[in-house]
C-alpha cells in the first residue's frame, strides 16, 4: 500500500527526533521509514532503533560512510528509487545531516512535498556541512516545523513567509519520554566506577575539530589537565583522527581521560545527567545538557542553540586550550532556566496534527 508519509533517517540525531514523531503518528497516518545507513555500525544504528522502540525500517539503503559528495550522491540515487516506487504525498526529513539533504532533494525533484523537522535553526557557520544542509532543506520545504521563536525569525529573515509552524523541539519530547526510562540504565555508572558529579563528559565528532590536528590536540590537551576524570565516548571518526595524528598515546600517558565505546541514547542521558560538566561540539548534547541543567562547554566558536548560551548554561570556547581549561575550572552554569524555550513537550503531536491537515488538503 502506498504510504501517505515517508520518514527518511540515517544518523543518531535523526533517530532521536524520529522516536516521538512515530509514537504520535502511529495509527493516525500510513507511513514508512527509509534508513539510508549513514551511520552503519551497530553502536550508532540498530542500538538506537532497539532502545527507542522504533519500528524496523521499511527500506535500509546501506550507503555507509564516505565523503560528503559520495554519501549524499549515493543517498540521492537510492532514495529516488524508493520514492519513485512508493510515491508518498509527503516526505519528512529531520535535522541537518547528509541524509536530510539527500531526502529533501530527491523528493522535490520528483515533485513530492517535503516537511522539515527542526527548520530555521542557524549557527551562521557556512563552512559547516550541517549549516549548508539546513539552509538548502528549508528553502526546498513545503512545511517548516520550527523548534524555537528564534528559528521562526531566521526563516523570515531569509524571505520564507509561508507554512512556518512554531511547534517546539522534538528532542525535548524525546527527553521527556525517555528520561525516566534512562534511569533503568544507571548501571552504566557502576560499570564505569563513576560517582555523580565527580567526572567530566566529553564528546567530539564534528569535522572542524576531528579533521584538524591542532584543534583536536588543543581539546585533548586541555581536558587532560582537568582536575576531574574525563569520560570520552569516542565517535569512530574521532578515533580514526586520533590514530592518524598519534594522539591516543598522548591521552593514555596523561592518565585521566578514559576512552570508551559509543553509547546509546539512554546510557548517554545517564552519563550527561550525572556529569559535573559536559564538553561537546554536538548540537543535540548542548540541548540535553540544558534540559538536565548541567553546565555545558561547547568546543565551537558559534552554536545553533544560542538560547542555551543566553540562559547561562552553555559557554562557547572553540578549540582554544586556555579557554577550555578556564571553563573546566570556573564555568558553573546559571540559576536561570526557562523550561519553555524548547516548547512544552508537545511538538510531535503538533507536527502530527499539521501533517494530517496537510494530507486532507492534498486529498
UniProtKB/TrEMBL annotation:
Its EC number is 5.1.3.14. Pfam families: Epimerase_2. The keyword Isomerase applies. Residues 28-356 form the UDP-N-acetylglucosamine 2-epimerase domain. Keywords: Isomerase. Coiled coil: none annotated. GO terms for molecular function: UDP-N-acetylglucosamine 2-epimerase activity. It is an enzyme of class 5 (isomerase). This is UDP-N-acetylglucosamine 2-epimerase (Non-hydrolyzing). The lineage of its organism: Archaea, Thermoproteota, Candidatus Korarchaeia, Candidatus Korarchaeales, Candidatus Korarchaeaceae.
Amino acid at each position: 500500500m502506498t504510504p501517505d508519509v515517508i520518514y527518511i533517517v540515517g544518523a543518531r540525531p535523526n533517530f532521536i527526533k524520529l522516536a516521538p514523531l512515530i509514537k504520535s503518528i502511529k495509527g493516525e497516518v500510513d507511513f514508512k521509514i527509509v534508513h539510508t545507513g549513514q551511520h552503519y555500525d551497530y553502536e550508532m544504528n540498530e542500538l538506537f532503533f532497539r532502545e527507542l522502540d522504533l519500528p524496523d525500517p521499511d527500506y535500509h539503503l546501506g550507503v555507509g560512510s564516505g565523503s560528503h559528495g559520495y554519501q549524499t550522491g549515493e543517498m540521492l540515487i537510492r532514495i529516488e528509487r524508493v520514492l519513485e516506487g512508493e510515491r508518498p504525498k509527503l516526505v519528512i526529513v529531520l535535522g541537518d545531516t547528509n541524509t536530510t539533504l539527500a531526502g529533501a532533494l530527491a523528493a522535490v525533484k520528483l515533485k513530492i512535498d517535503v516537511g522539515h523537522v527542526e527548520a530555521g535553526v542557524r549557527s551562521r557557520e557556512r563552512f559547516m556541512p550541517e549549516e549548508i544542509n539546513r539552509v538548502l532543506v528549508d528553502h526546498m520545504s513545503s512545511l517548516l516545523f520550527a523548534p524555537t521563536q528564534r528559528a521562526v525569525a531566521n526563516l523570515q529573515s531569509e524571505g520564507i513567509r509561508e507554512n512556518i509552524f512554531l511547534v517546539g523541539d522534538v528532542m525535548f519530547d524525546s527527553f521527556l519520554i525517555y528520561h525516566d526510562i534512562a534511569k533503568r540504565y544507571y548501571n552504566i555508572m557502576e560499570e564505569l566506577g563513576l560517582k555523580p558529579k565527580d567526572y567530566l563528559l566529553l564528546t567530539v565528532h564534528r569535522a572542524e575539530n576531528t579533521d584538524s590536528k591542532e584543534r583536536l590536540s588543543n581539546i585533548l590537551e586541555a581536558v587532560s589537565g582537568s582536575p576531574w576524570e574525563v569520560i570520552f565516548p569516542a565517535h569512530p571518526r574521532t578515533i580514526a583522527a586520533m590514530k592518524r595524528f598519534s594522539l591516543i598515546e598522548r591521552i593514555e600517558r596523561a592518565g585521566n581521560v578514559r576512552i570508551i565505546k559509543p553509547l546509546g541514547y539512554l546510557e548517554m542521558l545517564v552519563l550527561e545527567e550525572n556529569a559535573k560538566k559536559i564538553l561537546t561540539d554536538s548540537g543535540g548534547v548542548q540541548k540535553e545538557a540544558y534540559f538536565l541543567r548541567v553546565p555545558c562547554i561547547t568546543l565551537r566558536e558559534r552554536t545553533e542553540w544560542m538560547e542555551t548560551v543566553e540562559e547561562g548554561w552553555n559557554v562557547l570556547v572553540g578549540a582554544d586550550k586556555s579557554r577550555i581549561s578556564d571553563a573546566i575550572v570556573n564555568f558553573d552554569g546559571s540559576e536561570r532556566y526557562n523550561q519553555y524555550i524548547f516548547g512544552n513537550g508537545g511538538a510531535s503531536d503538533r507536527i502530527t496534527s499539521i501533517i494530517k491537515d496537510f494530507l486532507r488538503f492534498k486529498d
